[in-house]
Every structure is written in C-alpha cells, then in structure tokens.
Write a structure and sequence with these properties.
alpha+beta, 2 helices
Length: 88
C-alpha cells in the first residue's frame, strides 16, 4: 500500500533532486520496500498518472501478480513509475 502522503513527499523529493536515474536510485534506498522504475512519460501512452508535475508524472505499480501492471488503487500499489516529461 502506498499513501497519498507518501506520493506528495516523494514528489517533493523529486522536485528537489531532479528527474533522473540517480534521484530514483536514492528514492529506492529511502523508501524501501517501495519499488521504483524510471522512464520517459511518452513510454506510457493512454495511461493516467496519479500525480502530475511539469517535469514528471507518477504512476502506481501493482506488483502482486506474476507481471507488473499499472493501477490507480493505492491499496494494492507496491511501487511507482517516475516518468520524466519532456516538453514538445
């Protein structure tokens, strides 16, 4: 389970440290056991983020099953995708 308060705290940390692999690695260390993945936002077409920012979006991951999938359910979320937004 991931809470909205955690999302806000994580987003604040990303704003301070930037959107990159190094920042995501630091999040992995600080927020164990939450799983973090980093990608570009355009790699996730037709999905709705649970948190939007000008430089990044956050998506919830459900890792309970055999394969990871995106979810909007905070109760089953086991991780986050940090998706960098590149302006057009």
């Amino acid at each position: 389970m991931i809470t909205w308060e955690q999302i806000q705290e994580i987003a604040s940390n990303i704003r301070i440290s930037g959107v990159n692999e190094t920042a995501v690695s630091a999040l992995r260390q600080h927020y164990q056991p939450i799983h973090f993945t980093y990608c570009m936002d355009d790699d996730l077409p037709n999905n709705t983020p649970i948190f939007e920012d000008g430089a990044f979006n956050l998506y919830l991951i459900d890792g309970r099953g055999h394969c990871l999938c995106l979810t909007t359910d905070y109760q089953v979320a086991t991780g986050l995708v940090v998706a960098e937004v590149i302006p057009d």
